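Need a sequence for this fold. Nothing fancy.
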């Protein structure tokens, strides 16, 4: 099944640049939240589990809202969805700065910010790219968008730490909220929605998801993406605090997150390039296997600045390199018509993993005073996800969405 590539309203490079900046701002902000774990929880008198629960809910809400955000972008256009998401995202981060207790923090950092991240996410940006980019270039362009997200993490980690040092954690969040408002004007470049090809049904939301879920390879892809979320969210939220626990400074923690973002630029671009040349499912299996090896190696050596940065570099190469491959497989299976929605469903699994990783990290730390059990679980899950991806069949689904509505 094929869907014709839409004619872009603006030159393709303009669309790609605007989308990449949106991805950088949105994901960069999200990547900086781990820097607030210690100052915010100490100032508000929160346990690590309470802070982790707010971040876990954020990830879960992000995942729940992502398929709907993708579906609205498919049907009504990416620009409107991204602009609305940028506003909600900024309001949520602004509200975080003035949340006096765990309940209000859960509402602002968890619920509102989670919705904002979903609606202004790089998933919606990639759905827009999938609509206007020729099929043979999609994997590479998805890699570029993912690399832009990583560049945002590299920029916002030291920027966020600098804001905290200069203004305190509350005003740092206010300034970040102001930056998020830039998404609104940038979204205008991504106008348009995906059109049906002749004879293709315009399936309702649940019918399209049910039909896609009947495809075994898609189910395996969705299940395996859970592990990606577990790894990323646990490391992103708890790694800075873990390094402080090991005797390193908060600045090392912030630069560790930045190094992950820096090396993920290369990893995402390489993943997108390889995804157009090698079997995507084999590349995904390799990425998850190497993550397990990297975590195991990190636990076997003493924690120093050198080993922290080395681990960050290794994980950075493997960080979001799963995204262009996963998005590429979803588009290959079902075409770009429902890409936003069906990638969003896969991303929901990713965010369930994120919820578990962030929440479990806080619980285990509060109960044991250590993150070791979660690190070991990360190794086991990495190996399991590598095995799950091996049976995936890289081919389009015959007859998807061609039934009468």
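Here you go.
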């Amino acid at each position: 099944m094929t869907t014709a590539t839409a004619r872009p309203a603006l030159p393709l490079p303009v669309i790609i640049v605007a989308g990449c900046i949106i991805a950088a701002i949105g994901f960069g902000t999200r990547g900086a939240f781990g820097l607030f774990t210690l100052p915010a929880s100490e100032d508000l008198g929160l346990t690590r589990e309470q802070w982790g629960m707010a971040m876990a809910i954020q990830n879960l809400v992000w995942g729940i809202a992502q398929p709907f955000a993708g579906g609205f972008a498919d049907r009504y256009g990416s620009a409107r969805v991204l602009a609305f998401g940028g506003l909600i995202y900024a309001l949520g981060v602004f509200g975080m700065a003035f949340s006096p207790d765990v309940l209000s923090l859960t509402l602002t950092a968890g619920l509102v910010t989670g919705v904002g991240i979903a609606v202004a996410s790089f998933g919606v940006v990639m759905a827009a790219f999938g609509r206007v980019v020729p099929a043979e270039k999609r994997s590479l362009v998805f890699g570029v968008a993912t690399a832009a997200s990583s560049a945002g993490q590299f920029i916002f980690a030291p920027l966020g730490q600098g804001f905290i040092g200069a203004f305190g954690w509350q005003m740092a969040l206010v300034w970040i909220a102001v930056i998020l408002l830039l998404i609104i004007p940038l979204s205008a470049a991504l106008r348009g929605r995906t059109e049906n090809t002749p004879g293709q049904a315009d399936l309702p939301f649940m019918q399209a998801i049910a039909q896609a879920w009947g495809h075994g390879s898609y189910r395996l892809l969705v299940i395996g993406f859970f592990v990606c979320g577990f790894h990323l969210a646990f490391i992103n939220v708890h790694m800075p605090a873990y390094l402080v626990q090991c005797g390193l400074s908060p600045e090392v923690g912030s630069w560790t997150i930045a190094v992950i973002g820096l090396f993920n630029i290369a990893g995402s671009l390489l993943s997108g390039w390889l995804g157009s040349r090698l079997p995507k499912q084999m590349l995904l299996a390799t990425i998850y296997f190497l993550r397990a090896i990297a975590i195991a190696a990190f636990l076997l050596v003493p924690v120093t600045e050198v080993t922290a940065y080395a681990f960050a570099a290794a994980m950075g190469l493997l960080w979001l390199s799963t995204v262009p491959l996963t998005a590429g497989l979803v588009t290959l299976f079902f075409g770009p018509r429902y890409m936003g929605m069906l990638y969003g469903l896969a991303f929901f699994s990713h965010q369930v993993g994120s919820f578990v990783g962030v929440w479990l990290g806080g619980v285990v730390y509060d109960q044991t005073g250590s993150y070791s059990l979660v690190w070991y679980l990360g190794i086991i899950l990495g190996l399991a996800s590598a095995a799950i991806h091996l049976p995936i069949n890289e081919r389009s689904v015959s007859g998807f969405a061609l039934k009468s509505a």
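For context: Residues 138-180 form the longest helix (43 residues).
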